[in-house]
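ugh ok fine here u go
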Amino acid sequence: MTPAKILVVDDEVELERLIRQRFRKKIQAQEFDFLFAADGVEALRRLQSGIQVDMVLTDINMPKMDGLTLLGQLSGLRQPLRAVVMSAYSDMSSIRRAMNQGAFDFLTKPIDFQDLELTIQKTLQSVQAIREQQQQLQQAQQALMRVAYYDSLTGLPNRSWFIQRLAQLIEQPSANRLYAVLFIDLDRFKLINDSFGHVIGDALLTQVAQRLQHSLQSCPQSPGVVARLGGDEFAILLEDVKNIAEVIVIVQQIQTQLERPFQIEEMEIYSQASIGITLNSLGLKRYDRPEELLRDADVAMYCAKAQGKGRFQVFDPTMQIPAKSALFVKESR
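structure:
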């Protein structure tokens, strides 16, 4: 059990002795861990050092930095803590100002230690509630991130994530940095899906995703990431490649992995992949938009598929001419 950390800020040395005496058993049982500072300056220095504090118990009237000034500084700290102020009963105007500045509660001096213990318990419960709310919010945000940027079937990054990562690379241009986009489409997937059903089709997609990831792990010299674009389409981003020859070696390793039979529900299912390749720099051609990179890799993939199953093609700008012609013919019909 981690003890609750309570920072006591007061220039009265006697208060430290009384607190240690009153809460001796709780300190020994590691329920409470009291830290002490003589003024707001020392307290703020401790808090800014990164120490995790649950509660600040501060006097209002102190040298160097008073409690009201310290309260104003606490809001800039990135940790959920509560502050309780102490002051003489006759100083109600300062207590009122402290409460308006965000103090959680107040105690009047001389301190009633039974009241102090109750106040500490109540304050720590409030801090715990804040932390639970923050944790729930963080979990909800992470869940939304997974829905927005990850594929629910394979767990891979999705098209949105992939496009965003490409955009980051394009926004950070480097004359010497070369990266490649592989557009992967499974051959015969529709036939397999129609013949054996969506359950088998989904299982195949999941195993394909695993093999693609394994293929990249076996090529540590070219760090990359696999994404599922949708349906039976995947993409791989290879960052910091040396040249196209290195990319082709990796593509051939991927195709070798995918040519092995997939074991699904006591069946051996065979499926190959057509792969299109494009680089961020093709001669004088430079990409300004991530969609263009993905489009050209897609065009190269269709050119590879037109040559037969299990082929790959490196994008060439001349490939866009037949692709555009086919689109014109299709739209004219």
